[in-house]
Amino acid sequence: MASRFVIFRLLFLLLCLSDSIVQIHSDGFGINYGQIANNLPSPSRVALLLQSLNITRVKLYDADPNVLLAFSNSNVDFIIGLGNEYLQNMTDPIKARNWIQQHLQPHLPQTKITCITIGNEVFNNNDTQLMSYLLPAMQTVYHALVNLGVDKQVTVTSAHSFNILANSYPPSSGTFRHDLAEYIQPLLDFHSQINSPFLINAYPYFAYKNNPSQVSVDYVLFQPNQGMTDPNTNLNYDNMLYAQIDAVYSAIKAMGHTDIEVRISETGWPSKGDADEAGATSENAGLYNGNLLQRIQEKQGTPAKPSVPIDVYVFALFNEDLKPGPTSERNYGLFYPDATPVYNIGLQSYLPELTYSTASKINVLSVFSLVIYVMAHLMCG
Ligand SMILES: *[C@@H]1O[C@H](CO)[C@@H](O)[C@H](O)[C@H]1NC(C)=O
Ligand SMILES: *[C@@H]1O[C@H](CO)[C@@H](O)[C@H](O)[C@H]1NC(C)=O
Ligand SMILES: *[C@@H]1O[C@H](CO)[C@@H](O)[C@H](O)[C@H]1NC(C)=O
């Protein structure tokens, strides 16, 4: 009797899940699924977690077949990655084609892979050899996609550090570093030619951490504040992320392009840091990511591009215990490895073993559970 009841209750919870009757809108909200850790849940459990949260956009740093397999026949849309170590090989058409055939094509179409990032923050070190491989690698991978007939479903781009800007203030004066112009100009021409977005990893957290007495914490956390007015455009900015996005648009425009969309491939806030990492608290991280999620759900654009909803991948899904560097590096996750939330940002989960976050939703669940309890008694008792 008792065990039958448990089975009924579980079946019903599964029903709730597949019906998605109590989930949130998360259009535009993407998440980076980093795996530099030794304690993460299996990809199939992660698939359940993301399904329960109605998160349908995921960015990987590689093309982990276990992840791509676990998400087959799901509605999750993937960006996969080719790390910097592949750039040189990807300039070879044969190797690029082989890579696509071995790592991408076996997953299509049952796993929705829509984008490949070639290299991550290639301009953020002084490796000019690596920089010179970037565009040829992107072009070669793109041509391989064309030749294999999948260029309409999978696009090619790269993710850059915000540090490639020499100037970002005010946003209308954004410019790229002068020494990178020889690489970035043809790169932008290529983006324009294949109609692919320009991706930026942007962390207002770093601006705050480096200068906590000068940078307003409300401005970086999307909290109410007076904001900043760009003297050239008279546009008012109430948060730093939007100012950073528009600075990138300005830098692209200064190189002659108004036809390339800027998207945020990473942003986030650490919930923990070392003594010298100002602002790294779970309260601030919850505000940053929660306020950002709300703006994404409202489909806000930036002041310079009000009709283009911001497109963001938050960093990151999990805390990653094997990441080197200061404490903050291992504490960007929205979730602990056991899938419990580090803080509440208004994403709700309806898997029985995961945490609920609002009383009203729990009530919905409790009422359904009660109905099932009664039904189970009637049918089995
Ligand atoms: C889940 O998110 C999608 C967009 O990603 C949205 O269209 C859909 O309505 C959401 N489902 C629920 C039940 O909120
Ligand atoms: C690049 O290609 C060489 C030669 O085929 C191979 O030995 C090497 O492992 C490749 N590098 C990567 C990162 O795949
Ligand atoms: C790159 O080189 C410059 C000077 O040439 C130096 O200031 C900077 O720290 C270097 N950056 C990295 C990431 O090595």
Automatic annotation (TrEMBL):
It catalyses: Hydrolysis of (1->3)-beta-D-glucosidic linkages in (1->3)-beta-D-glucans. Keywords: Glycosidase, Hydrolase, Signal. Residues 1-26 form the signal peptide. The keyword Hydrolase applies. It is an enzyme of class 3 (hydrolase). Pfam families: Glyco_hydro_17. Its EC number is 3.2.1.39. InterPro entries: GH, Glyco_hydro_17, Glyco_hydro_17_plant. Belongs to the glycosyl hydrolase 17 family. This is glucan endo-1,3-beta-D-glucosidase. The lineage of its organism: Eukaryota, Viridiplantae, Streptophyta, Embryophyta, Tracheophyta.
